[in-house]
Write a structure and sequence with these properties.
By secondary structure, the chain is an alpha+beta fold. It has twelve helices and ten strands. Helix 2 packs across helix 8, helix 6 packs across helix 7 and helix 6 runs antiparallel to helix 8. The N terminus is likely disordered.
Amino acid sequence: MKSFKGYLTEREGPAWLKSASDMAFRKEPMIPVSTPIFNRIFGGSLRTTVFHITTPASINATVKLQGKKKSISAFTVADPRYYSEGIANGGGVVFEIEADILISAPQDLMSQPDKTGRRWLETGFLNRRIATAVEKDAYDAIAKLVKKYGGPRVSGVKAAHEWANMRPIHTPSTGGWGEIDDGANPTMTRKEAGRLLQKMIADYIDAMEGVMSKNSKLISDYYRSVIDRKMSIRHDGSWNELVVNNINIKKVMLTRDRILNDSATKVGYFAGDEDAYENWKMKLARKFTVTEFPNADAMEPYIRKVNANMEGQDK
């Protein structure tokens, strides 16, 4: 297990504290997903070709992630309408990337990023068999944390609720710090509360890493065997999700109708201005291999072909 300083080194800076605490003090167990954790538990990540949807305005942000540990969501199969509409924040641009796969699922995992790129998973979105095992062990681990930090003897869901209420918080009206259960009475200074928060977050991540390690074979056997390459089953308004990092961009694919014709009020789209669009595309092609498709449906055969070529190699 790592020290809290080690976790900061992994996640590059103290800004992680706030977002990590939001994840670590939930009333349902949240599982942290990162390269260092997966390397320690599974001995490394699978590397393969996947796809990532974004907007024209977010191309540079994706480019900056090349070779980095910060994770993003990707897919291998999705209903074609998402190529142009996007899944979370708009679309029109699909990156074909080579990436390390941290975890995969045949459905949307609803993974949640913190501010520095670590992804967190709710156990309820895991495969049912895995969720049952992981949740039991997670509640047991959280109950031990509650006891360690002076809380009552609790178990199951009550342990997670008690833990969520033990998070040190600041109350502006009093200027004080304390546990939520104490009504944030001014019993701690900001420095004392910060130290306590650091230790509690580090202990939580250690505990959840222990839970994943205990269930490592169950998790690994499933999530490394469900990288779906069969496009025919995804015309149902759904997609699969893969949490990936250490990306390398192979190709940038554009859905012309979406990028060219979308509203001028949306940053990065061209509202019918063909000259501006063609100029932008030409500049993009100087940096990347760019393939333009008239619409999302026209892109699907290419993605199907890539998946066919990769099928059987994702082991």
